[in-house]
Amino acid sequence: MVRTALFNWAFARNMGGTFVFRIEDTDSARDSEESYEALLSALRWLGLTWDEGPEVGGPHGPYRQSQRLELYADVARRLLEGGFAYPCYCSADELEAQRELAKQENRAPGYEGTCRDLSAEQIDAFIAQGRVPVIRFRMPDRDHTWDDLVRGPITFGAEHVPDFVLVRANGEPLYTLVNPVDDASMRITHVLRGEDLLSSTPRQLALYEALAAIGVSDGTTPAFGHLPYVMGEGNKKLSKRDPESSLQMYRDSGYLPEALLNYLALLGWSMGDDQEFFSLEQMAQAFSLDRVSANPARFDLKKCTAINGDWIRALSLEELTTRLMPLLAAEGLVSSPVSAEHSAILALAVPLIQERMDTLVQAPAMLGFLLVDQDRFTVDQAEAGAVLGEGADPAILAALAALTAIPEWNTEAIEQALRASLIEGLGLKPKLAFGPIRVAITGRRISPPLFESMEILGREVSLIRLRSALSTG
Is 237 a catalytic site residue? Predict the structure, then answer.
């Protein structure tokens, strides 16, 4: 959904058009106010602003289909009266029997027109049985051809597009009715949508003609472009149930909206000149449909994460710090508003981790040792078991002696003292020399640069942590 919205947004912006956002919520069993709010929140977070739609308004509102039911009911009535639609009383079992017979006879499955020309007596008999009809559209007996914006000329033979349902038996209008009606009333000129909706296009083309005949539209038919599938693991089409399809997962995992849109743009479109890093504004300026591929695109989470890391490194330190604040606050590492002490620490520490992060959620673990009070500082026991203990005591004691003696507490002095005492003095290799010191200071074997971190932490706290790491301490 997000990639489709992105391509429509970029196309509208590039062409100087109007990006219309409407909510398909006519399915009362599935749609909820919660899902509506989540959708708006997602697009706001991504920065895909719309020109017409919910909260913004526009000349063709309302933009929630659940608030346009009277319009759809009126159109359905007019289609019935004009002979473009008819009531269908076939039961689910009867329709299933038709499908099974078609399979056995190697015919394309589809509605066989059983109720197309019912007599008044037949209708009365169905009503007497208590059957409640759906409203089904009468497809014209001819092929349908259109010039797809992405795929070029496409033709569907009449035998592959049977009559279809417009309104359920409970009165709820279906996608097949409401979207063409909205397209007509909202003066939609171009529609970019997923390849999975390709087979519905001939139905909609026929319905547009019927809407013009009954005076609902001015006869304008939108131009359609069908975007390629996005494939996931195992060369299967990515579905809504796949974790990679969850926008909330990316928000919770610390992906930047700019990075996510940047990567999604690459799934079926190319900026050209092998350029893979670009902003939303740059995409809008360069977007053209001739660079949209009709071939399936493959979702690669590693590449998405790599682009996210590139975007993290492209942020200013001030902007990155701002985006980290909610995550740090959620872990209880900073207050809101942040204290002057923590602000000073972050100003020094964020540059140390910016080059090391792929997602924002990595920051609390990287920065926590600098922000917690000493009584809350803990060393990961798995990390401690790997590098601390009696074998590490000589290195820690030598480090304590060397660090206590340095006159100034800064990165250069700390590094010189530790290298002299541990590598030159004890003859240790760097990994064995600094591993115990790093875990004692940061609580982890992987951390921001050690010497810079110790300068930020300060002499007193650094020495306390080293003493606490001694096996006898």
Answer: no
68-227 belongs to which homologous superfamily?
A: HUPs (3.40.50.620)
Structure tokens, 454: 């110790």
Using CB atoms within 10 Å of the CB of residue 294, give its burial: 0 to 12 exposed, 13 to 18 middle, 19+ buried: middle
* Options 1.10.1740.10, 1.10.1160.10, 1.20.1250.20, 2.130.10.10; CATH of 233-313: 1.10.1160.10
**Among 207, 181, 219, which Cα is nearest to 71's?**
181
Per DSSP, the residues of 148-162 read ETTTEEEEE-GGGS-
DSSP reduced 3-state for 191: strand
Write down the catalytic residue from 103, 236, 237, 240.
240
Cis link prior to 337 (omega < 30° from 0)?
yes
Distance CA 94, CA 468 (A): 78
Domain ranges of the chain: 68-227, 233-313, 315-372, 381-469
Name the E strands within 195-313. 223-227, 230-231, 297-298
Range list of H helices, 82-228: 92-104, 120-128, 175-185, 201-213
Say how many C-beta atoms besides its own lie within 10 A of residue 360's C-beta. Answer: 20
Q: How far is CA 58 from CA 55, 138, 413, in A?
A: 9, 33, 65
pLDDT in tens, 423-470: 999 898 988 889 999 999 999 888 999 999 999 999 999 999 999 989
Q: What's the pTM?
A: 0.88
pLDDT tens-digit readout, 47-63: 999 999 999 999 999 99
Q: Assess if CATH 1.10.10.350 describes domain 381-469.
A: yes
Long-range contacts for 2-5 (Cβ within 8 Å, ≥24 apart)? 2/42, 2/46, 2/247, 2/260, 2/261, 2/264, 3/227, 3/230, 3/264, 3/265, 3/267, 3/268, 4/192, 4/193, 4/194, 4/227, 5/43, 5/48
- The amino acid at residue 264 is L
Task: Provide the token pair at 312.
Answer: 């993290």
Q: What is the DSSP pairing of strand 85-88 with strand 134-137?
A: antiparallel
Q: Phi and psi at residue 166, in whole multiples of 5°?
A: -100, -40
